[in-house]
Amino acid sequence: MNDLWLDTVIVDWLREGPTARPEGGLDRALAATRPIRQRPAWVFPRTWLPSPMADVRVNRRVQVLIVAALTIAALLALVTAFGGAFRRTNPLGEQGRAIAYQEGPAIFAAWPDGSHRVPLSGDVPFARLPVFSPDGQRLAFVAPASADALSGRLMVVPVDGSGPAVDVSQGIDVVASDVPQISWSPDGTQIAFSGVADGVATIFVATSDGGAAPRPILDASVDRDLPTWSPDGEWIGFREKDPDGLHIRLRMTRLDGSEAQDVNQVIAEDAVLSKLRWISATGGDPGEPGSTRPMSYWWSPGFGSDASAYVDRRFGYSGQPWTGTPSGFTDFGIPWSPHGEQVVVLTQSEGVLVADDAGRLKGAPDFYNNGYDGQLRSLGPVAACWVDWAPDGTSLYGGSPDGCEGVVVIPLSNPDAAIRVPGSTAGVASWQPPAMEVPSR
Amino acid sequence: MSSAQAGDREAFDRLATAVYDRLYAVARRILGDDYDAEEAVQESLIRGWRDFRSLRDPTRFDAWIYRVLINCCRDQGRRRHRMRVEVPDLAVERSDPANQYARVVDADELERGFLELPLEHRVVLVVTHYLGMSAPEAAQVLGIPTGTVYSRLHYAMRAMRAALSRAAEEPVNATPEVSR
Which of A227, A357, B1, B167 has a Cα-to-Cα distance from A160 of 20 to 30 A? Predict the structure, then answer.
């Protein structure tokens, strides 16, 4: 192979060139040469607007106005989107300081001085009997059809405003008496309430989110009301009245209706048995395995007898810190202080009485058959209708002494400094529990 | 020409249509790849449309657009980082002139040898032999001294000859027998 021949081959090959051309290549190339109107990214309003709009010439003043308008719109959008979340985070301020109370036909929550006031019953026309959940994040209340109706729907609403009130009774009429017929389970997932079925009041358990229809825990052969959940979540206490009107019992049962048993019973038309109140989960002697904790209630055997503030330690041990004529709503019962050290009694003769002797209340051996000889401290007529403990145990709150026209807060250290919650009207109120870990079941 | 330079799209389209095939052939020969060639031509036409107004002598459009194309080929070559195209050996009898594949084999060897050259040498070969430019014209288009054109031509042809000689001395790939 000589160089001349090779050079000839190479040059011929080069001169021939490639013969194929890409199909459609010319069209693609010409299309690529079509001008694409680029715009400087930094020039207002070309950065954000489509090209035809961006090319409209706008003077500087109008540009400033547009920027201002867009900024305001963005801020409004932020407030709309996240303002609710901020409120939801802490609408009532520090948890454990707000009281839910009735104000006219609605329910509000506010601090005792009226600050942090938040409406909670939404569009419900009539709302009564608020009860905070154990974690303080939700509120249950009854929504009757009219102001004087004796029953209504059981509603649950998140207190942070993150959602509407939910009807958890789902068509069952909840008894709306003077005192709440509502009791949250300790873990907040269920609510026991007294509902009317076929003309008979009985105890139902509903899921607190309304996810399931309420179920009765016992048959509807007799009237049952004033449900109250035990601190361990295993029992529900309630009051039972036979149709003859003579037999009244306080009973307790497992959630499935098993192991139903009497706590106390009386046989008299004028007998008194109130809501059963267990000592708190953090207070008192847990007792023997399987036993229930100490409980309190109003008790009167009838036949014209006085009523007693009754503390029942179970297994036959009991005592009455005070006996006489009760005042207000006896169904409200004898509330324990948050740590189970004291009980409070509302009396006609001495007003508000606080039984201070925790040892006597909870288990002193001689606390048996009127064996209470601890101190009874009279606060005077600082409350009417009902009285209960603030979660921190330093104050009481109850119906105002002027005829329960509102809610008052009574410092135990200085009962004369009681203050009235602004705007509150008649009705039992509920104090928001402090933030705490709710025991799981 | 002048109307295309003045921004007449149809006039420019006519110009581009007239030169497209030759532009593509140049790019295809230099780059050795259909896709790269089309990309280079397309880019050269985009630049051509964009910069046509800057051409002071419109009659020099051909030379100018080839220069633009060569620059685009350089860019494309840098992007691809692959100037070697693997051309598969075909198992044919090369020495038989009657064999219908002999020409194909020669063309493959030529292309393989060509693509082994540096891009600037390939450019000089294509501009002078395919486009038929003289060394001074090629120098003007490529923006290099005429002497450089000559030297690159010299080295390029020598490298091509060496490549073809090596190919001729290599044993012919026979169709492998299938073991039975």
Answer: A227
ipTM above 0.90?
A: no
pLDDT tens digits for range A7-24: 888 888 888 877 777 888
Closest-CA residue to A400 (of A390, A392, A410, A391): A410
Q: Are B1-82 and B84-180 equal in CATH topology?
A: no
What is the C-alpha separation between A282 and A438, in angstroms, rounded? 12
A10: closest chain B residue by CA: B110
Is B12's CB within 8 Å of A7's CB?
Answer: no
CATH architecture of A99-431: 6 Propeller (2.120)
Tell me which chain B residue has its CA closest to the CA of residue A16.
Answer: B130
Calculated CA dihedral for residues A254, A257, A258, A264, nearest 10 degrees: 70
Q: Find which of A4-13, A198-207, B50-59 is predicted with most confidence, using mean pLDDT.
A: A198-207
What Rg value do the Cα atoms of chain A yield, rounded? 36
The one-letter amino acid code at A377 reads: R
CATH of domain B84-180: 1.10.10.10
Within 8 A of A33 by CB-CB distance, chain B residues are 12, 16, 45-46, 48-49
Rounded to two decimals, what is the model's pTM? 0.58
In chain B, what are the domain boundaries? 1-82, 84-180
Whether A25 and B49 lie within 8 Å, measured CB to CB: no
Query: Which of A38-42, A110-114, A195-199, A365-369 has the highest mean predicted lDDT (pLDDT)?
Result: A110-114
Instruction: Return d(Cα A394, Cα A400) in angstroms, integer.
Output: 18
What is the rounded average pLDDT of the residues B152-161? Answer: 90
In whole angstroms, give the CA distance from residue B74 to residue A426: 91
Contacts with A9 from chain B: Cβ below 8 Å = 106, 110, 164
Question: Smallest CA–CA separation between B145 and chain A, in Å?
Answer: 22
What is d(CA A38, CA A28) in angstroms, rounded to the nearest whole number? 20
Please give the full DSSP string across A304-326, using - where no structure is assigned.
TPPEEEEEEEETTEEEEEEEE-B
Topology of domain B1-82 in CATH is Rna Polymerase Sigma Factor; Chain: A (1.10.1740)
Q: How far is A51 from chain B (nearest CA, A)?
A: 20
How big is the A-B interface in CB pairs under 8 Å?
80
Q: Does A30 touch chain B (CB under 8 A)?
A: yes
What integer is the mean pLDDT of A399-426? Answer: 93
**Average per-residue pLDDT in chain A?**
84
Contacts with B29 (C-beta within 8 Å, 6 or more apart), sequence order: A14, A17, A18, B114, B122, B126, B130
**pLDDT score, position A345:** 94
Tell me what pLDDT residue A35 has: 60
Residue with tokens 């000559």, as numbered in its chain:
B150
Q: Which residue in B has a C-alpha nearest to residue A12's C-alpha?
A: B129
- The larger pLDDT score, comparing residue B125 to residue B91, is at B125
